[in-house]
Amino acid sequence: DRVRLPKYPADSLEKSVGFVRAAVEANGCIQHYNCDSEIHLRALAAYAACVEWVDDAAGRVIDALDYLGLADNTVVIYASDHGEMAGSRGYWQKTVFFDDSARVPLIVRAPGCKKGGCGEPVGLIDLYPTLCELAGLEVPGTCEGVSLVPLLAGEGRSARDGVFCESTVYKRPEYAGCMLRRGNHKYNHYLDGDDELYDLGADPGETVNLVRDAACAGTAREMLDAVVNFWQPEQQRERFDRTPMMRRETIE
Questions:
Q1: Could you write out the DSSP letters of every residue in 145-195?
Q2: DSSP H/E element including 46
Q3: 149: closest CA among 138, 134, 163?
Q4: Is the pTM higher than 0.85?
Q5: Is the pLDDT reported for residue 57 higher than 90?
Q6: Which residue in 162, 194, 165, 176 sits closest to 239, CA to CA?
Q7: Are 166 and 177 spatial neighbours (Cβ–Cβ below 8 Å)?
C-alpha cells in the first residue's frame, strides 16, 4: 500500500516510435500492457523494496567506514548499470532511451568532494578516469571518459559536451538507435529514421516530440549530425553481425 502505479495515456504504446514498440515486445512486457494492474503493482512494490534494502546496506557500509576511521581515505561510488521503466508508460525493463531506463543513480563520497549535485549529465564511462585521478594514477591515453574530479570538487564544469547511449532491441538488429543528451535536450536517432527530440527542461516526462517542430530545426539538425558522426549508423548491422553470441546463451 506504499506504492502507486505511474499514470500514462492508454494509447502511449500505440503512439510510440517503432523502436520502443519493438523493445516492449522483445522484453516480454507487451502481453501485460494495459492489463494485469495487480501484477504491475506487486512488481513495483518488490522493486521498491529491493531499492530500500540496497540503500540500507549502503548505509551500513558508510557507517562502518566512519567507525573504522577510513572515511577520509576511501572513495565510495553508488551507481547502477541502467535504469528501470518500472511501470512508467506501462513498460518494464530497460533498453529504451526514456530517462526511466537510460538514467542511472550516481553518488560519490570521497575526500575533497563538495556536497550537493553537479546538475550536469555525465556517463559511467567517466568513472575510470575519475578513480585514476582520485587515486593519483595516470589516466591511459586510450581512455574515452573524462575525469569528474573538477565537478566533485565544485571547481568548473565537465569537459564532456554530451552523453551518448546506444541500444539494439534483443535479436532484432533492424531496431537500433543512439541517443545524445546535451544540456536539457535529448535526441534519439533510429535506423528507421523515426527520430525523437525532447526538451527535458520544459518536458521532463518526454511526452512532446519536437523533432519536426520548425522552431527546433537547428537544434535537431546539430544533434543529429553529432549522433551520426559518433554512431556511424550505416555500420550498425556490420557491427552487430560480427559480435559473437554467447555459446551457452539461455534466452530464446
A1: S---HHHHTT-S--S-S-EEEEEE-TT-TTSEEEEEEETTEEEEEETTS--
A2: helix 37-67
A3: 134
A4: yes
A5: yes
A6: 176
A7: yes
DSSP, res 243: S
Per-residue pLDDT reduced to its tens digit, 150-200? 888 888 777 788 999 999 998 899 999 999 999 999 999 999 999 999 999
Spatial CA neighbour of 175 closest among 30, 26, 32, 13:
26
Amino acid at 99: D
User: H or E element: which one contains 77?
Assistant: strand 76-79
Nearest to 102 by CA among 188, 228, 32: 188
Contact between 169 and 130 (Cβ < 8 Å): no
Question: Under DSSP, is residue 230 helix (H, G, I), strand (E, B) or coil?
Answer: helix
Reported for 109-113, long-range contacts at CB under 8 A and 24+ positions apart, including other chains, are 109/62, 109/71, 109/75, 109/76, 110/74, 110/75, 110/76, 110/134, 110/152, 111/72, 111/73, 111/75, 112/152, 112/153, 113/152, 113/153
- Structure-block grid coordinates of residue 16: 510510440
Q: How far is CA 102 from the centre of its chain?
A: 2
Bridge partners of residue 77, in order along the sequence: 108
- pLDDT exceeding 70 applies to what percent of the chain? 98
Q: Is the pLDDT of residue 249 over 90?
A: no
pLDDT in tens, 112-142: 888 777 778 899 999 999 999 999 999 989 9
**Nearest Cα residue to 229 out of 174, 164, 173:** 164
Q: How far apart are CA 17 and CA 195, in angstroms?
A: 8
199-208: long-range contacts at Cβ-Cβ below 8 A with a sequence spacing of 24 or more?
200/99, 204/99, 206/98, 206/99
